[in-house]
Specification:
By secondary structure, this protein is mainly beta. The chain is built from 3 helices and 13 strands, in the order H-H-H-E-E-E-E-E-E-E-E-E-E-E-E-E. The protein starts with a helix and ends with a strand.
């Protein structure tokens, strides 16, 4: 097996589809643990919205901005390396847990932003099918760290951090007459997050996100164009706190269910020697709505839009 192939197989196993649990299941588990508390549905909705919104802002679209090819190796000079600074914003639906009532869960639209430093290094240059077709099964290592800015006016308390590691597998390296094609898998950990307020329904979570991206792109004389599709899975531990008192538990800690969704993204870039400036926009699908009218007018099935701006240096 070529160097790095085992790493890629292990990362792909993280993204292997399994049955996703629903927010309704989290509501039921919370209700059982807390004696049927009526704040569990609102807390489950808050967990789903916060974990997916923060995960989307941290993951964005392409894992190496402005290119669909792997970095590979410089002939006789070792691996190519890239360092990127990226700013991402995501507009997400969010339940208003501060103003939540027993029979109503108001909806907010909040913006979550993410500032990150992202590095990549070529591990394997891949195989060449023909003189103009190379990069098959090439492999890059990718890693990132960042800070998430969470809107406190919409119920978040403090900010959060992100840290991720993964790999990009090349299927075709871009050349004069063919586009670049690659697939990547990255696992991100997103720190501690609190949504809600004292004396109201609150959610404390430690989310993580697994992101799979497939991209295709081509560099033209004026600009480069990249388009792709992705699959995200968000999960983590969650503590739901409600306003009840007395004999019923006010706080319930559970393993949060995993939520999957698909997304689409595209971007343009401009290259000046070793510097690349890249912009990207995308859309992520929502989740199944709740049959329980107590969580209306909040609608978890609404999609989210996101965008990013990046500066990348490659050597």
């Amino acid at each position: 097996m070529r160097p790095g192939a085992g790493l890629m197989l292990a990362l792909l196993s993280l993204g292997a589809p399994v049955r996703a649990q629903s927010a309704a299941e989290l509501t039921a588990r919370c209700s059982d643990a807390s004696g049927g508390a009526n704040w569990c549905a609102a807390g489950a909705a808050g967990y789903q919205a916060a974990a997916s919104g923060i995960g989307l802002a941290a993951s964005a679209g392409s894992d190496i901005p402005g290119t669909s090819s792997t970095l590979g190796w410089r002939r006789g000079l070792g691996p190519r390396m890239a360092l990127s600074a990226r700013f991402t914003g995501a507009r997400i639906p969010l339940p208003d847990l501060v103003e939540a009532l027993a029979l109503e869960l108001p909806e907010l639209r909040a913006t979550v932003s993410h500032a990150s430093l992202e590095g990549a290094a070529g591990l394997f240059d891949g195989f060449r099918w023909a003189p103009q077709y190379g990069g098959f099964l090439s492999l890059d290592l990718v890693a990132s760290v960042g800070v998430l800015r969470l809107p406190q006016a919409h119920g978040f308390e403090g900010d959060a951090y992100s840290a991720g590691v993964g790999a990009r597998l090349g299927l075709l390296r871009e050349s004069f007459d063919v586009p670049g094609v690659s697939v990547s898998v990255v696992r991100r950990f997103l720190g501690d997050v609190r949504l809600g307020a004292a004396r109201a329904i609150t959610v404390r979570l430690e989310p993580a996100a697994t992101s799979v991206r497939a991209v295709i792109g081509k560099e033209f004389s004026a600009a480069g164009i990249v388009a792709g599709a992705g699959w995200d899975r968000y999960s983590g531990t969650v503590t739901i706190e409600g306003p009840e008192s007395g004999r019923q538990p006010r706080s319930v800690t559970l393993d949060g269910p995993a939520f999957d969704r698909l997304l689409l993204h595209m971007g343009v870039s401009r290259t000046w020697q070793v510097l690349v400036v890249a912009g990207e926009i995308g859309w992520a699908a929502g989740f199944d709505g709740f049959s329980d009218p107590s969580v209306q007018p909040f609608d978890p099935s609404a999609g989210s839009v996101f965008g990013s701006l990046s500066l990348r240096i490659t050597r």
